[in-house]
Amino acid sequence: MTELAGKHIVLGLSGGVACYKSAELTRLLTKAGATVQVVMTEAAEQFITPVTMQALSGRPVYASQWDAREGNNMPHINLSRAADAILIAPCSADFMARLVQGRADELLSLMCLARPIERVPLLIAPAMNREMWAHPATQRNLAQLAQDGAQVLGVGCGDQACGEVGDGRMLEAEEIFEELAAFFAPKLLAGQRVLITAGPTFEAIDPVRGITNLSSGKMGFAIARAARAAGADVTLVAGPVHLATPRGVRRIDVRSAQNMFQAVEGQAQAATVFIATAAVADWRPANSAEHKIKKDGSGQVPTLAFVENPDILATVAQSDRARSGALYCVGFAAESEHLLAHASAKRARKGVPLLVGNIGPATFGQDDNALLLVDAQGHRELPRASKAELGRQLVLEIARRLRAMSAP
Ligand code: C5P
Does domain 8-184 have CATH number 3.40.50.1950? Predict the structure, then answer.
């Protein structure tokens, strides 16, 4: 279950080509268990039909303040009172100006003005041409909207429908969805600086070959997303993976265990929580050949010698900051059997307060997983669920332990 399950979202569309993304956003929201009530301006109807939006949301669309379907003939009051949040996506330059001015001559702006401001948050996903976005009037309006309490979700950069390239595209449906879910998440890690390693490492044999493993990085990325949603400042050190960076997360890409070690050492000084989910190679080839190692036809196979990689987690866990309690360290153990015994032994060996065990073959590359949390008090199972859900549960468990540590 995401934070959006059971939430009632009033999705307002103003005029813009990006209206097509709002169709997909509606699907994502309803799939996550939210109910979506669509309200459209006249201009939005030029870009997408109310028929499409009704079909996707499963609810009749509202477009007029004179809509007589409401018993009291006050759709602006009824719609805004029922909302857990109002999201304007796309929010055009004109609609932003209308919000700033408190205009109320059509249903969507009237409804935004009439919303109970303390109880019903207003989020906006702007969408416009890059010159319109950069214009001082738009930037002034943005600043004013933020000051008036709206949550501005930002814009994307890239190709625009007009053929120009730059800032001002509406965020993709998945990005808006992620921002909205993060908005509703309890801020359990507010003020924490969380450093996470994720994915495999790649240890070069020569310029075209190397040793790696089957870790996809999905668990670490899910934890990064959940930690950011919980209000933490998150840095993600990622090995070679094919995953999109979670919104609002600082990402440092690395390749080898040594690269990862360097990146972590640089960041750990500022972190308050370190979560080592990466599947770091234990050994690397002692020498990486400068050129491709060639088969010479003699039938002789090359011999590889290995040296041990630094243990990133154990090193960080032994640092002064970790030992003084300023940095809380969490390790992972990917095992194939005897999970509790191996995880408990690994917790002691690494010197970390919390060790999370999982079964390697059952998690690598999968979208779901099951976790076994082992700490000084004992162990606790987090049963099989999506990695997104397990990321949220792990964040909750870590927040609980941080609170207990700081309690007098
Ligand atoms: O020793 P093992 O690889 O089983 O330990 C797994 C845990 O230690 C994981 O949290 C992993 O990220 C971390 N680790 C590390 N550096 C290594 C090896 C493992 O940080 N060289």
Answer: yes
